[in-house]
Design brief:
Nuclear Transport Factor 2, Chain: A; six-stranded mixed β-sheet; about 35% helix; alpha+beta; 5 helices; about 160 residues; globular
């Protein structure tokens, strides 16, 4: 990420760093066990990993474009945030995410992510790239959308 990054990039980076600090197994198990945001936030705080106050209460994560996740309504609000990450982490025994090519376009941060994981049941290692667009308004993340390629992500941001 560039040294002169704007507010949107700083917010996304802080959330990314939070995820990197929490052991993967803790994230997976706590988010899977939490019925809602309040429970997840309380448990993470008890474990010494307070969730940063950077997630908008109406945050949206549309289900389309996210391989393997099928939630017709998408994931909306703080409870949706917890459900999304629980669903994303559930199949993995181990998971790492490395980002590159950060680009801030207005309120949006476009980044490429290298996902490395190991299947929880199969033990099989997998690796794939995707591009994400994180939208930040008022210093909080309001939307996260996954795309198969950077070209798809950038095309979605172009005005009609």
């Amino acid at each position: 990420m560039a040294e002169d990054a704007g507010e949107a990039s700083r917010v996304v980076k802080e959330v990314e760093e939070w995820f990197a600090r929490v052991p993967f197994e803790t994230l997976r198990e706590e988010f899977l066990a939490a019925p809602d945001w309040e429970t997840a936030a309380r448990r993470m705080t008890e474990l010494g990993y307070e969730i940063p106050d950077l997630i908008d209460p109406g945050v949206e994560i549309p289900a389309e474009g996210i391989a393997g996740l099928r939630d017709e309504a998408g994931f909306v609000g703080w409870d949706g945030w917890v459900r999304f990450w629980a669903a994303w982490f559930e199949p993995w025994e181990g998971y790492e995410w490395e980002t590159t090519n950060w680009e801030e376009i207005g309120d949006h941060v476009v980044l490429d992510g290298l996902n490395r994981a190991r299947g929880r049941e199969s033990g099989a290692p997998v690796e794939w790239w995707n591009t994400q667009v994180w939208t930040v308004r008022g210093g909080k993340i309001v939307r996260v959308v996954g795309y198969g390629t950077r070209e798809e992500a950038l095309a979605a941001l172009r005005p009609e």
